[in-house]
Amino acid sequence: MNGSRVSQPLLRHCLAFAIPALLLVLSACAPGRHMIAIDTRPSLTTKSDTAMLVIVRTTIAYGGYGINNYLDGKLIGQTQGKCYFMTEVRPGTHYLMSRADNIDTARLTFEAGRIYFLQQGIYPGWNAAARFSPMTPDEAKMEIQEASYLVYDAQMPGSDLSVKDYDKAKDAFEKENREDPTLHKDILDYRGYKPGK
User: Does a structural domain hold residue 2?
Assistant: First the structure.
């Protein structure tokens, strides 16, 4: 009798931690609200007049936490769990942003016929912060073998960044770059890859 009174609170305590952990694992590879999981994976190629951007989230950490990604303020996709998505980009200089508990910004110059692989790293702390970093084709191909492939659901579109948030993130990126030119050097120097090379 005494032993059962001790085990009941212990059981409730364990369930309080086990249930959220189970939900996190089950949702780790689920697509976000604006994405559809597709079994057939496209080839990693691009058209001659556009560039291809591939964003790869390589970890299930914070798997149920959806991160919206924007190109020049327009929503292009959401990552959730270990997954990746692809989007065509017109040539030229563009600002890529992701919104987690921070807004991470990358300025990239896209060239037609090239593929740009970016890892979306998640850095836990008091909050979940995201950061883009360049990947080689071999790194990307290895990671996406075990990742879910997602496509943006045009029937369930999400909201774009507000002009205010976009301008604020863009200005902050450029200010950081002026103050410390080495801070974003990996992104600013990244030129992508020609398919098959």
Answer: no
- Answering whether pTM is above 0.85, one says no
- Please state, in angstroms and rounded to a whole number, the distance separating the CA atoms of residues 106 and 96: 5
Two structure tokens written together for 117: 């692989």
For 24-38, what is each residue's pLDDT tens digit? 433 344 455 789 999
CA–CA separation, 40 vs 76, rounded Å? 20
Token readout for 37 is 């999981």
The whole domain housing 80 covers 35-188
Q: Confirm if 53 and 89 have CB atoms less than 8 A apart.
A: yes
Q: Give the whole-angstrom CA distance, residue 105 versus residue 174.
A: 10
**117, part of any domain:** yes
For residues 156-176, one letter each, b for 16 or more C-beta atoms within 10 angstroms of the residue's C-beta and e for the rest, the string is eebebbeeeebeebbeebeee
